Amino acid sequence: MTSERDPGQAERTENDAEEAPEGAGGSGAAESGESTFTVLVAAAANFGIAAAKAVAGLVSGSSAMLSEAAHSVADTVTELMLLAALKRSERPADDEHPLGYGPERYIWALLASVATFVGGGIFAVYDGVHTLTHGEEVGSPTLSYVVLAIAFLLEGYSLRTGLRQATGEAERHGVRFGRYLRHTPDTAVKAVVMEDSAALIGLLLAAGGLLATQLTGSSAWDGVASLLIGLLLVYVAWVLGRSNAQYLVGRPLPARMRDGVREELLGVEHIVAVIELVTLVQGPAEVMIAAKVDFRDLSSAAQVEASCEEAERRLRQRYPQIQRVYLDPTPGRAGG
Fold this sequence. Notes:
By secondary structure, the protein is mainly alpha-helical. 68% of the residues lie in helices and 9% in strands. A 3-stranded mixed β-sheet has the order 1-2-3, with helices on one face. The protein starts with 8 loop residues before the first helix and ends in a 7-residue tail after the last strand.
């Protein structure tokens, strides 16, 4: 059988692009390196910002600033966990883990979302409620404004780095940015983009709370800002936690890509039916395929072996993210 793809292959690949973010990936090493840089930039920015916000919050007495400090601390912890996720998931398969360590990135990313929920969201909600019910003594907000302005610039740069990677990936896979961000299995980049976006919104809320408190003399506005920051972080933590949990439980390729896998298998000589197909996304550039296939009754052992090799070649050519292919020759129950 010729190694060239049939004339309709390019068109089918373009149709698959809409679903590509699920397990999409070309060079896993390149994407991992880019993700690591994105997370490092975010961690460095948040570490410095957290200390500055804490000092400004203590000086001004602003609960919104203290909530923002907790937000940045939670983000820093989150990024450190994401770095651990990226590094540990890159380890090669061994005897104890024959399918590799890819899913471990989702365990650490899930823990990172918990850190955002507890360290940032819950603290900010509590601090906002406490301010609303007990009030607070407000000091000079000047330092807070300076810190917020610097933090906005640093967070903006970090977000720009994450957006650049996410936008590039979306363009590479031929999908809209919003769709890529919702469905990408690279949850590290998704976390950076969402958390930095939430950070910028939180900075604006904190500044608004400080200004309203300064103009009215009522600390209630600062409490409201802190409460809103907390609710925003709870939402981000829920979205990221849910996304990582889905991949830990086991998520298949999208329906259109599963149909493409079936199509490639049925296009191989001697394969007459795909009885059962299982697909599993194990990482941003790591997908496993397992299928029970029916071969022609008169196919020899050599022909079956050659067909299995051809099927794996075709699948990896069409979907580079497929790393493992397991085919089980099974007597046809679906019309062989």
